[in-house]
Amino acid sequence: MHAAPRGTQGMMGPLDRIVVAGGGGFIGGHLVARLLREGFRSVVSVDVKDLGEWHQLHPGARNIRGDLKDLETCRRVTGGAKWVFNLAADMGGMGFIENNKAACMLSVLINTHLLMAARENAVERFFYASSACVYAADRQTDADVIPLREEDAYPAMPEDGYGWEKLFSERMCRHFTEDFGLETRVARFHNVYGPLGTWDGGREKAPAAISRKVATAAVSGDHRIEIWGDGGQTRSFMYVDDCVEGILRLFASDVHEPVNLGSDETVSVDQLVSLVESIAGVRLTRCYDLGAPKGVRGRSSDNTRILDLLGWAPSTSLADGMTTTYRWVLDQVHAGGAGQPPAGGAGHPPAGVDMRSTLLAG
Ligand code: NAD
User: Fold this and answer.
1) Is the CB of residue 28 below 6 angstroms from any atom belonging to ligand 1?
2) Beta-carbon contacts of residue 185 (< 8 Å; ≥ 6 apart)
3) CA distance 82 to 44
4) CATH of segment(s) 193-236+265-307+316-336
5) Are 293 and 96 in contact (CB under 8 A)?
6) Which end of the chain is more exposed for a tag (fewer CB within 10 A), N or C?
7) If pLDDT is split at 50, 70 and 90, which confidence band does 203 have?
8) Rounded distance, CA 293 to CA 116, Å?
9) Is the beta carbon of 53 within 6 A of some atom in ligand 1?
């Protein structure tokens, strides 16, 4: 039976079309799964990757391979759609975004063309996945963090490349609402993790990378782990189910301004490693690479606004979320061996690629 996402009852029928851009990706794949579980029967999932590389391929959705940088493709896939969720971007962990700034900024074409197409096709509502990387680095220099509030994004000095694109695209959404009346919702994700995501290959982020290293050490018996930075950097990590729940709650709300969507449970990288060690039942010797990309020193989400506006905030504990995540990564390591293609189909590093852990991009 059809059950609309919380708060959206009456907004949509089960046959109304929903487009998920980036549906072959980590969060997009989980969002498609949730929409199908909710009873929506016309979900269109679009991604530039070959279908064989999608993290999740749902037979209940219409799965389309297409490049959303292309305006014509955006027009075609959003035709007849009522809702569009844009989770498509060229992105990865800190190791990727620090070395691929132009590629990150080119994702501006995806959101711009999707917005233009959505307007032309009279889409009713549009979601954009922004990032904590919109916040200025000089507010994130201390591991003992002051959680980031939404208003801290201005005056603007975001993460170079990736963060600038996110902030610009946020404003594009705002002006499409103000000038053209297209309803947009924007969430700033803070470090999302969980099963069925990238766990190796260079784009993976700290929770998956640390899980892979611990699992590989446990399986191989080589009890060493390499960590980027000195381990004292702090972050908060949001479990993917909370992310999807937050997307749908924000989407159903009448909140137009960008909202943090993240956990406020702050940990250091060393604490995250200790947590995964205890889940795996191993103790590893830590080697710190102080020259590796580290990102900002400390970052966490201030959840005052989301609690005020939605009466809800992410609540899955890191211990619970990492237990599920570690078990999934361990299965991938068992299935393919570290460095081999995972059972879910995500890419793997070519021979000789350094598989060190990455800090999170967003
Ligand atoms: P992901 O890389 O797993 O998914 C993004 C998907 O977009 C990929 O499958 C990719 O193939 C697809 N894509 C890239 N370019 C495309 C194009 N031209 N046309 C069509 N598809 C294209 O990343 P994710 O973790 O699922 O992130 C989803 C969104 O959330 C992104 O916008 C990302 O920037 C944002 N975000 C994620 C995090 C996080 O921690 N995962 C944090 C902050 C923001």
Assistant:
1) yes
2) 125, 126, 127, 128, 250, 251, 253, 255, 256
3) 11
4) 3.90.25.10
5) no
6) N
7) confident
8) 36
9) no
> Ligand 1: distance of its center to the CA of 257 in Å?
21
CATH 3.90.25.10 maps onto the chain at: 193-236+265-307+316-336
Residue range 309-352, pLDDT digits in tens: 999 999 999 999 999 999 999 999 999 854 433 333 333 222 22
Which residue has the CA at smallest separation from atom 29 of ligand 1? Answer: 87
d(CA 242, CA 23): 17
**Cα(47)–Cα(301) distance, integer angstroms:** 29
* Mean pLDDT, the chain, integer: 90
For 221, residues 6+ apart whose C-beta sits below 8 A from its C-beta are none
The structure tokens listed for 196 are: 């069925």
Q: How far is the CA of 275 from the centre of ligand 1 (A)?
A: 27
Report how far apart, in Å, the C-alpha atoms of 280 and of each of 51, 153, 208, 239 are.
32, 38, 14, 19
What's the angle, vertex CA 313, arms to CA 309 and CA 317, rounded to 5?
A: 175
Helix (H, G, I), strand (E, B) or coil at 182: coil
Mean pLDDT, range 119-148, rounded to an integer:
94
- Does the pTM surpass 0.85? The reply is yes
